[in-house]
């Protein structure tokens, strides 16, 4: 039997949390797998007990490098203690001298993104640039020592392979619509009030905590152009974050974006909802008109699939990853062009037929993503590695 050790300590925000929240129920539903999951206490409280899963809670130390160093000393001994025979490292960094074969999930596109490096230089964020380069060296070393490396999209797998010189397997992340819409409890009253206050204005949605690579500034610059084109109807941009210091994960400063909102007189148009509980997020999608993302770096982008499954037309930047995920279920714009972004939004808003076509194609496209299929392919990799290890006496 496969006994999978899942190192999920790095799952603290964004795609990492979404990944662990979804694969654990899939593993729990299987009778041919045991799993030991290393995670922090906050995430543990979200997950149900299962007969075949053992949860090991540890403090999630601040800082990726500090956490990675701690894991080097901790994970190997836990694998031996629990008797696991395969390791799934979910946080970009591999375990040195793993006692069992190791599958590394590499999903951070910032280490390979020239746009991110350029953006940091433009902002004068040289400390963050250095930090990213150091982590990038560790991530490339991790790709080199892992027995198998998995990327969440074909585009990113190709990027990693060119970057590292090592073969990378593409296993797209999944989606479970039934699980996504299961929670019927209402959105918080304050959020409902903000949504209702838009009146007849066009409601745009962007689901992300603030960071640089999601390119908030291009979206904010597009709003006056959208506002002008729509005239009296108006527009509201709903954000699942706050553009305030210390309100978002990481060390990204939202001050520039916040100042831009004020200088462009968009305090009414930009509505900061703050973080929405994941089980209720589906209600937010359905309460808006168009999903928009200006991101310039991604390795998968779960909100795109969530938006498509909710029947929202999608306007996305022209990243190859976005095009892989959405196909013809979205319209695209040059990632740093607020003018093109505004044109695409107004094109969709002004054509009910186009909006309906995109929504229908999105619903169909979202069915192509499956967490069950993703986990099945991970376990197939694991089974092959365990068999090879048994033959070699590892």
Molecular shape: globular
Gap from first CA to last CA: 17 Å
- What topology, given as strand order, has the largest sheet? 3-2-1-4-5-6-7
Alpha plus pi helix count: 16
The strand count comes to: 13
CATH superfamily of the largest domain: Glycogen Phosphorylase B
The tally of domains stands at 2
Could you say what the CATH architecture of the largest domain is? 3-Layer(aba) Sandwich
The oligomeric state is: single chain
Give your account of this protein's structure.
The chain is an alpha/beta fold and 394 residues long. The protein folds into 2 domains: 2-174 and 370-392, Glycogen Phosphorylase B (Rossmann fold); 177-366, Rossmann fold (3-Layer(aba) Sandwich). It contains 16 helices and 13 strands. The chain has helices at 14-28, 41-44, 64-82, 114-123, 126-145, 154-164, 177-180, 189-196, 216-230, 255-263, 281-286, 302-309, 320-326, 338-349, 352-366, 371-392; strands at 2-7, 33-39, 53-57, 86-89, 102-105, 148-151, 169-170, 202-206, 235-239, 270-272, 290-293, 314-317, 330-333. Strands 3-2-1-4-5-6-7 form a 7-stranded parallel sheet, with helices on both faces. Helix 2 links the parallel strand 2 and strand 3 (53-57). Helix 1 (14-28) packs across helix 16, helix 9 runs parallel beside helix 10 (255-263) and helix 12 packs across helix 15 (352-366). The chain is globular. The protein starts with a strand and ends with a helix.
What is the element layout, followed by pairings?
Blueprint: E1 2-7, H1 14-28, E2 33-39, H2 41-44, E3 53-57, H3 64-82, E4 86-89, E5 102-105, H4 114-123, H5 126-145, E6 148-151, H6 154-164, E7 169-170, H7 177-180, H8 189-196, E8 202-206, H9 216-230, E9 235-239, H10 255-263, E10 270-272, H11 281-286, E11 290-293, H12 302-309, E12 314-317, H13 320-326, E13 330-333, H14 338-349, H15 352-366, H16 371-392
